[in-house]
Amino acid sequence: MIPAHADVVIVGGGSCGCVLAAGLSDDPDRTVLLLEEGTAFGSASAVPREIRDAAVLPVGPESPWTADFPGRLTSDVQATVTRGRVLGGSGAVNGAYFVRARPDDFASWPASWSYEEVLPSFRAVETDTDVPGDLHGSSGPIPVARVPRERMHPLSRAFVDASESAGFAPVADLNAPGPDGVGAVPSNMRDGTRVGPFLAYLAPVLDRPNLTVAGGVSATRVVMAGGRAVGVEIAGPDGPRTISAGYVIVAAGAVRSPQLLMLSGIGPADELGRLGIDPLHDLPGVGRDFSDHPEFAVPYRFRPGLPSHTLLLETVLHTENLELRPYTAAFGAAIPGSGVADPVLGVVLTRPRSRGRIVLDERDPRRPPLLDYRYLTDPADRQALEEGVRLAADLLAATTGVVEAGSVDARGGRLGTSLHLSGTCRMGDDENAVVDEWCRVRGIEGLSVVDTSVFPQVPSRGPHATAVMLAYRVAATARDALPHTV
Ligand SMILES: Cc1cc2nc3c(=O)[nH]c(=O)nc-3n(C[C@H](O)[C@H](O)[C@H](O)COP(=O)(O)OP(=O)(O)OC[C@H]3O[C@@H](n4cnc5c(N)ncnc54)[C@H](O)[C@@H]3O)c2cc1C
């Protein structure tokens, strides 16, 4: 049963929402209500096999665990952008590549988020099963493991060999600061099971009497009174109603968090007014200047007879502004229904300069918004990606087992997105910042946004480990400050 009031209401049971709900309900004197639009599992054992299997991304067109959004990558490339819609969120359906942001990524964050400040939280969330030492955790709930070189798919091994022959250095631990090179992907998995924030953080505490998790419930508006968030309007199986809240945390992900703020009258006032939304609080940065990694797919075929079902990505090469990802499984095998028969070498721009924005649907702002990426609008991005594609072609030509490498022109290499959307409600103190350094919405009491929306920009690596670290650290910091019942 959904209570009429909770001390803290968290909107969105995704990667960050699960970690926040576990951290904040750790205090038995605080009631916490977690609202998730997708399916909520009542226990770890209720999680279906396709969500557990780290070799499969359960995100195809038929997936019941995702929501799709219209995306415009460039003026002439459209895309469907997938996000998790299930307890565990995008972290329940993702590639299980659990890599930390680099120390220099935190230069764009407030000083309280320097690499030195966040390292203890990176350590606290993980148990690294391969690498001992001070850089890694040994008692956190997320297991981090790598496929050793000798057990990699022959294609991954051959790619590592080709990279090293081309002069790139081997890197033993991609989660350690240090020079770029080629190394094994750190994955949040144990014995082939994807262990995301639901299984790691929330499932073990679901029986707490002060924690309610409600699935199939969508927050439609944050209710405001006198400059303060006082509740959440929801739509669920029992129809619409309002929940009162001592504090509201929006963790609906980088698409839906800014949309929910705007539907609540928090955002660029002129734009909200045009859409018929009463602008309660002018924050021009909501939904603006987001960043994500453009990813160009170079198709290839490898010698018949090699294993086809494997972890999708076992090794990557980092160099300057690029990540090269030799996906070993055909996307058709790893993403049911994707229809992509050949494996691809992904060429990712890790520090893109171009910025995009979320555009609400003028017909009805409650409909899925358009993600206008404006990829490659900065000429430096286009040039770097083209260099990456040339490097990919050279490395594929030198990779033993590759029998046909798609020339990008001939086989139609494709521009896509890595699905690492960040920065739609940026942290900071400039006029376009939406939240302060502790994720509190600027100028409003009782309201925070805690998810990848608040990253000042997309990290130069996948964002998942950084998202979990963020939620863990915010929960730990807010533990005493947020409302309690007694
Ligand atoms: C297919 C895919 C593969 C990826 N692979 C990787 C990878 O291998 N490595 C990596 O580092 N990153 C990867 N990412 C990115 C990473 O998983 C995400 O950045 C991260 O999980 C985002 O966490 P979040 O908490 O910000 O949002 P999410 O995990 O997306 O959570 C948002 C949650 O809020 C819920 N919600 C939304 N609106 C409402 C509402 N109004 N009311 C109630 N609930 C709502 C959603 O259903 C969802 O469960 C991938 C992403 C995708 C989609």
TrEMBL record:
<dbReference type="InterPro" id="IPR012132">
    <property type="entry name" value="GMC_OxRdtase"/>
</dbReference>
<feature type="domain" description="Glucose-methanol-choline oxidoreductase N-terminal">
    <location>
        <begin position="253"/>
        <end position="267"/>
    </location>
</feature>
<dbReference type="InterPro" id="IPR000172">
    <property type="entry name" value="GMC_OxRdtase_N"/>
</dbReference>
<keyword id="KW-0274">FAD</keyword>
<dbReference type="GO" id="GO:0016614">
    <property type="term" value="F:oxidoreductase activity, acting on CH-OH group of donors"/>
</dbReference>
<feature type="domain" description="Glucose-methanol-choline oxidoreductase N-terminal">
    <location>
        <begin position="84"/>
        <end position="107"/>
    </location>
</feature>
<protein>
    <submittedName>
        <fullName>Mycofactocin system GMC family oxidoreductase MftG</fullName>
        <ecNumber>1.-.-.-</ecNumber>
    </submittedName>
</protein>
<keyword id="KW-0560">Oxidoreductase</keyword>
<keyword id="KW-0285">Flavoprotein</keyword>
<dbReference type="GO" id="GO:0050660">
    <property type="term" value="F:flavin adenine dinucleotide binding"/>
</dbReference>
<dbReference type="InterPro" id="IPR007867">
    <property type="entry name" value="GMC_OxRtase_C"/>
</dbReference>
<dbReference type="InterPro" id="IPR036188">
    <property type="entry name" value="FAD/NAD-bd_sf"/>
</dbReference>
<dbReference type="InterPro" id="IPR023978">
    <property type="entry name" value="GMC_oxidoreductase_bact"/>
</dbReference>
<comment type="similarity">
    <text>Belongs to the GMC oxidoreductase family.</text>
</comment>
<dbReference type="Pfam" id="PF05199">
    <property type="entry name" value="GMC_oxred_C"/>
</dbReference>
<dbReference type="Pfam" id="PF00732">
    <property type="entry name" value="GMC_oxred_N"/>
</dbReference>
<feature type="binding site">
    <location>
        <position position="86"/>
    </location>
    <ligand>
        <name>FAD</name>
    </ligand>
</feature>
